[in-house]
Amino acid sequence: MNKTLRRIFGKNEFYVALIIVILAAFIQISSGMFFAVNNLVDLFRAIIVNAIYALCAMFAFVSTGADVSFPMIAGMSTYVIFKLGETTNLPVIVLVLIALLIGAICGCINGFFIVKFHFNSLIVTLSTSSICYGIAFGALKGVRINVPEPFLAFANWNILRVTSAQTGLGASLHGAFVVMIVLYILAYLVLNHTMIGRAIYAIGGDEISARRAGFKVDQIRFGVFVVNGLIAVIGGICYACMCRNCSPMEYYGGEMIVIAAIVLGGVRLTGGHGSLLGCFLGTFLLGMVSNSLTMVGVSVYYQNVFLGIIIILGASIAAIQATRSMRTVSKFDSE
């Protein structure tokens, strides 16, 4: 097997893409509706927010460890500015900046305790999530509210409307899809074409070596969690505008499916490894399971079983590849 094929077959992305193709073929053969244009548009619409959140999870795991605070940071900050939008005449840009400021503050809290005191990132971000939850439902009462007038233009922004000739059903792709694409482009440029991107991978792979190489480990880790707070806010606003209402409860617990998606896509929980393509493919696959299996008559409960099997397979592949990489390194060192 030549190096090119070995490189392709050695990546999680290949196996996730293969599962997507097989599952799509199965659904199409069983229902004849998977490739209906309205179903494809619905599927891409459904994965937008989780794909944005996947950036938060990936940055955290690659550089430091788990971040489980991003859904509640998103929920609390979005709820605050929607309440302000109802009761004030602030322009939308000011409201968005307020939300970003809240997200950045939450990210600073995470980064401060993780960097300054070397606390476990899972414990710190879980605490931040709990604080945001308490503020949203305690101080702010957390009842469902509709999209305020300043955000209506974005809530009504659809970049594509289609009607399937096969099913007669219509679907629309929300403008948040453009936001997702822009975020992925920016993330790609940072991770692949800047020293900060190299530092993120280096720190997660081997912190001691990263320090010896001159990377500012503490500053990079702090910055990652601040950026995660900003990305979470963007995802939260997109989700609320797509739903045309905001309830903080709908954000609670959203981190688990996102973490499952990125692990499926090849992000290693031990750090230092992961790709944007893998994150997107993992998110897309889990979106397919959630959105498309009903077309072949699979119960919601059995969908969860199928979802669990896929996650286990993906994690197993990632673990096997990590073990092979360690063996290769060990063999190289011994020689």
Number of helices: 14
Class computed from helices, strands and strand pairing: mainly alpha
Low-confidence spans: none
Helix proportion range: over 70%
Q: Work out the number of β strands.
A: 4
Question: What number is the mean pLDDT?
Answer: 89
The shape, in one word, is: globular
Straight-line N-to-C gap: 23 Å
What series of H and E elements makes up the topology? HHHHHHEHEEHHHHEHHH
Which characteristics define this entry?
two-stranded antiparallel ribbon; single chain; 335 residues; 14 helices; globular; mainly alpha
Q: Your description of this structure?
A:
It is a single chain. The chain is mainly α. The chain has helices at residues 3-9, 12-31, 37-63, 70-87, 92-116, 121-139, 152-155, 176-193, 195-205, 207-212, 217-243, 255-264, 276-292, 300-334; strands at residues 145-146, 158-163, 170-174, 245-246. The chain has a two-stranded antiparallel sheet with strand order 1-4. Helix 3 (37-63) runs antiparallel to helix 11 and helix 12 packs across helix 13 (276-292). The protein is globular and about 60 Å long. The model has no long low-confidence stretch (mean pLDDT 89).
